């Protein structure tokens, strides 16, 4: 960590997270949340005076901080967090309290044993009124003894599905006092006399969550591309069965079923990578705009980050499992590397916002756009949602030979997203007209709202993929990337075919055409598959896999890996003589009687 300032700008949250990711590994470490969430919160939520005080100390590692938001009883529903911060104007302090068991902070990484500070999200009370969840910077442990401070109970929550080296913890406050200035005051403030000054936008206090959701998109790309690399390399080594009788066993990568399993994960990984870069640039630009007083991009950034987080984590979890199964029985071994990557990636489906709730957050933004469309308002000058205000072709044209730059495929995705958004909006309005409350109507439409959000995110991912590949100037590289783009787009068409067929927009014959284009792409990608994954330049230490090692010596090293098991240090384990051997000997003696 002492080398970080020499390599990167430690005040840049994007650079810090990238440095953290590639130097510390994926399975967690004591500085994980300190770098990923605490420092970005200081950068974006602390006022100038607070930044000058806290940021140098944080960057210099004079303390370790975490981000304590999730509670035992509430996670994604931030409005219902129970931890309270009540302002006392007499002492100019906030009193932090955990009034119930369910208000216990639960899950924050590095909270259990490592951190001595935390960004704590708590319900702000002042002058007898609650103003919602706000962030506070709170000391948890003595900086010399590391023991919890008076009124604070903190510990580790125990073993988890994955991230075994991260000390996820719990935290309770018993009327703990902290100075007024421990409240992050860049956007909202509490004055010494207790008066509350609200932020210009209610989402500004959650900028850290937006950042981490945006970062998750690139993280999911990493996991998909790593596991695709393992699956491709192993499939190029493994031989099984014959395609031509008498010609000998073939590489399993030559089977179309194997290609159909693995290659779409490479394509999706690239799509996620490109979109991850886009949204991180959008985040950085939006934070700069906020510093200059412009908050217009905040709603779009929030909605897009929620939707992308939900879609990419879901597809990454499914894709990792496909890659694991593509490696047969050996994929189930720890030696494959899949258990590590899967246990890390699958957690992202629920942490930093449960996926269904994230899709519904995106849907709220889409419903605002639908209302604007219905009201005849002019389209926003924003390429993320512009298409919703436009009229596309009445029928699908994906089988037209003149589909320059996949415009017809993109219009198919746009059509589906536009139709599903408007249809669920009209249903929402109709249910309210029939007497249901907004909340009841929303719940009755929730499944369709999620479908609309997925369609919107699919449109964004596809458009970004097309635009970024179009920028590539090296024609030899571009040709290979276009094969992956073709596979991605038509694979996505088949994934959403039900919606495209439902209203007659696409025909069954056009669906067959899309499948044909998938099989063409698989055939074109096959000769380059190993070179493609090699180009990602993952080191063997990134893969954590015997099956995916770069030198291809799978079987020799698989045997070495097994032989290195602690169980193989002795031929006969003590329990054999104590239990199993004794049991079998007694059974043999009984059989002689």
TrEMBL record:
Pathway: Lipid metabolism; peroxisomal fatty acid beta-oxidation. InterPro entries: ACOX_C_alpha1, Acyl-CoA_ox_N, Acyl-CoA_Oxase/DH_mid-dom, Acyl-CoA_Oxase/DH_mid-dom_sf, Acyl-CoA_oxidase, Acyl-CoA_oxidase_C, AcylCo_DH-like_C, AcylCoA_DH/ox_N_sf. Gene3D superfamilies: Acyl-CoA dehydrogenase/oxidase, N-terminal domain, Butyryl-CoA Dehydrogenase, subunit A, domain 2, Butyryl-CoA Dehydrogenase, subunit A, domain 3. The keyword Metal-binding does not apply. This is Acyl-coenzyme A oxidase. PANTHER family: ACYL-COENZYME A OXIDASE, ELECTRON TRANSPORT OXIDOREDUCTASE. Residues 67-176 form the Acyl-CoA oxidase/dehydrogenase middle domain. Residues 20-64 form the Acyl-coenzyme A oxidase N-terminal domain. Keywords: ATP-binding, FAD, Fatty acid metabolism, Flavoprotein, Lipid metabolism, Nucleotide-binding, Oxidoreductase, Peroxisome. Belongs to the acyl-CoA oxidase family. Residues 407-584 form the Acyl-CoA oxidase C-terminal domain. The keyword ATP-binding applies. One of its GO terms (biological process) is fatty acid beta-oxidation using acyl-CoA oxidase. Its cofactor is FAD. It comes from the Eukaryota. One of its GO terms (molecular function) is acyl-CoA oxidase activity. It is found in: Peroxisome. Residues 206-367 form the Acyl-CoA oxidase C-alpha1 domain. GO terms for cellular component: peroxisome.
């Amino acid at each position: 960590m002492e080398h970080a300032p020499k390599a990167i700008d430690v005040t840049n949250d994007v650079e810090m997270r990238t440095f953290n990711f590639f130097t510390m590994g994926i399975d967690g470490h004591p500085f994980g949340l300190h770098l990923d969430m605490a420092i970005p919160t200081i950068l974006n939520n602390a006022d100038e005076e607070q930044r000058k005080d806290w940021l140098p100390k944080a960057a210099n590692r004079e303390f370790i901080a975490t981000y304590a938001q999730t509670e035992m009883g509430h996670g994604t529903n931030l409005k219902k967090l129970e931890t309270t911060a009540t302002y006392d104007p007499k002492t100019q302090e906030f009193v932090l309290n955990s009034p119930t068991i369910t208000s216990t902070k639960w899950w924050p990484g590095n909270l259990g044993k490592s951190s001595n500070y935390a960004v704590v999200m708590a319900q702000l009370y002042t002058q007898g009124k609650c103003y919602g969840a706000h962030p506070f910077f709170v000391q948890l442990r003595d900086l010399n003894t590391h023991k919890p401070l008076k009124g604070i109970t903190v510990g580790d929550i125990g073993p988890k599905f994955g991230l075994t080296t991260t000390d996820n913890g719990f935290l309770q406050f018993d009327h703990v006092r902290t100075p007024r200035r421990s409240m992050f005051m860049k956007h909202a403030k509490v004055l010494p006399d207790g008066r509350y000054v609200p932020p210009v936008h209610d989402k500004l206090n959650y900028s850290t969550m937006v950042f981490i959701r945006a970062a998750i998109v690139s993280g999911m790309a990493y996991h998909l591309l790593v596991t695709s690399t393992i699956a491709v390399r192993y499939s190029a080594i493994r031989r099984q069965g014959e395609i031509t009788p008498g010609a000998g066993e073939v590489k399993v990568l030559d089977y179309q079923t194997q290609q159909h399993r693995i290659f779409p994960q490479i394509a999706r990984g690239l799509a996620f990578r490109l979109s991850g870069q886009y949204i991180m640039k959008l985040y950085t630009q939006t934070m700069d705009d906020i510093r200059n007083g412009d908050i217009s991009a905040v709603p779009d950034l929030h909605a897009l980050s929620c939707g992308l987080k939900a879609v990419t984590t879901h597809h990454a979890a499914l894709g990792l499992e496909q890659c694991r199964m593509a490696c047969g029985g050996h994929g189930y071994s720890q030696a494959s590397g899949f258990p590590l990557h899967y246990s890390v990636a699958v957690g992202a489906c629920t942490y930093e916002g449960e996926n269904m709730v994230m899709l519904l957050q995106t849907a709220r933004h889409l419903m605002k756009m639908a209302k604007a469309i219905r009201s005849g308002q002019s389209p926003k000058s924003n390429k993320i949602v512009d298409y919703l205000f436009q009229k596309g072709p009445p029928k699908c044209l994906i089988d037209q030979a003149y589909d320059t730059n996949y415009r017809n495929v993109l219009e198919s995705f746009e059509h589906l997203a536009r139709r599903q958004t408007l249809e669920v909006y009209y249903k929402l309005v109709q249910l309210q007209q029939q007497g249901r409350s907004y909340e009841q109507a929303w719940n009755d439409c929730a499944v369709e709202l999620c479908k609309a959000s997925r369609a919107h995110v699919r449109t964004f991912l596809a458009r970004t993929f097309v635009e970024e590949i179009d920028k590539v100037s090296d024609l030899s590289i571009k040709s290979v990337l276009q094969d992956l783009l073709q596979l991605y787009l038509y694979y996505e068409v088949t994934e959403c075919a039900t919606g495209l067929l439902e209203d007659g927009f696409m025909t069954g014959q056009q669906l067959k055409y899309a499948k044909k284009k998938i099989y063409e792409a698989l055939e074109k990608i096959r000769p380059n598959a190993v070179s493609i994954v090699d180009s990602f330049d993952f080191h063997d230490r990134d893969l954590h896999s015997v099956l995916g090692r770069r030198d291809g010596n799978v079987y020799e090293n698989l045997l070495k890996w097994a032989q290195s098991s602690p169980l193989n240090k002795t031929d006969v384990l003590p329990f054999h003589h104590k239990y199993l051997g004794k049991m079998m000997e007694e059974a043999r003696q009984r059989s002689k009687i």
